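Researcher: I've got a protein sequence and the SMILES for magnesium ion. Could you write out the 3D structure of the bound complex as structure tokens? I'd like something to compare against our soaking experiments later this week.
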Amino acid sequence: MHTVAVLSLKGGVGKTTVALGLASAALRRGVRTLVIDLDPQCNATSTLEPDDTDTSIYDVLQEPTLEKVRAAIATSTWGEGVDVLAGSEDAELLNHPDPGESRLGRLREALRVLAEDEEVPYQLVLLDCPPSLGQLTRSALVAADRALLVTEPTMFAVAGVQRAFEAVQSEREHNADLQPLGVVVNRVRPRSHEHQFRIEELRDIFGPLVMPVALPDRLAVQQAQGACMPIHEWGTPGAREVALAFNLLLARILRISRSRRRPVHSDFDDEEIQEAVEA
Ligand SMILES: Nc1ncnc2c1ncn2[C@@H]1O[C@H](COP(=O)(O)OP(=O)(O)OP(=O)(O)O)[C@@H](O)[C@H]1O
Ligand SMILES: [Mg+2]
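Model: Sure. Here is the predicted complex with magnesium ion in place.
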């Protein structure tokens, strides 16, 4: 089970879009996936439209028992391969700024009991975080084995991703397994000099941790989300471009997570590209 926290301490840069895009690529590739919606805005839950559950992340974070976890999970309308652990506006009540170890460990405990119970375990768990560093995001960092940082190629977003990286490093005190998976740059317009400048700046700061595939700024992303559809099913040229980028990202995530000690290379190898194009 690869558990990936998708985070950024800046709002609106594309965390939910990345979590949903990866879920869409996973669905296409037959990778059984659970999306956990930690954001009280519940954007991921709204787009994946699971059947109503009486229980949500709010209950799971208070009482991480198998009974609560099971009750909070439902199949998404995208298909059998993608399930959702439903978000809740009430989760904001649990977003303590200084939560203490016991509260921080509850999501990790929930995932532990779930992994033990599942006959066919999830291969991928995606944690969609809110844009703040309170109990919710920190719980994700304690539960995850990888952290995927999302940014836009703008000045304030770059500053936000630096703070997120520092948060990942400091949470390793509670979770020694946690590794930064990389920085994914979203909403890139290749002809923008400002964007190219910010991407170079990110490469200077993060080196090979900057993912070799960037996500282009395409209207199809908003259209597919508005229609609650996976980007892989939207079918326009823009959607296909974004879907291919997500295939590459997913291939990279699965590969890096499989071999923990493998150094991160910034380029894709032929096998990764072949897998992504065929997916
Ligand atoms: N690559 C893209 N191309 C076009 N629009 C995009 C792209 N990525 C994100 N958007 C749009 O930008 C808006 C913000 O994206 P998203 O909700 O994923 O950000 P977020 O980081 O999860 O926000 P929040 O901090 O509020 O949770 C959404 O309307 C989304 O459709
Ligand atoms: Mg979001």
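Model: The mean pLDDT is 92. Residues 237-258 form the longest helix (22 residues).
Researcher: Great, I'll pass this along to the crystallography team.
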